[in-house]
Amino acid sequence: MAVPRSKTSKAVTKRRQSINMKLKAPQLTECSNCGNLIQSHRVCPKCGFYRGRQIITPESNG
């Protein structure tokens, strides 16, 4: 059975692990009602529609 000759340092271990810990940019899709870019499977904050139905009434900020 293979045994390492010396202990792997914390810096080397964390450097190796950090390669796979990158944050990914969210995938954006176009709202079918207003065309606003939103995350998938979320209610559109601009028009309040989700899958062709009005879910929430958006509040106007202006």
TrEMBL record:
The gene is rpmF. Keywords: Ribonucleoprotein, Ribosomal protein. NCBIfam families: rpmF_bact. It comes from the Bacteria. It comes from Treponema porcinum. One of its GO terms (molecular function) is structural constituent of ribosome. InterPro entries: Ribosomal_bL32, Ribosomal_bL32_bact, Ribosomal_zn-bd. Belongs to the bacterial ribosomal protein bL32 family. One of its GO terms (biological process) is translation. GO terms for cellular component: large ribosomal subunit. This is Large ribosomal subunit protein bL32.
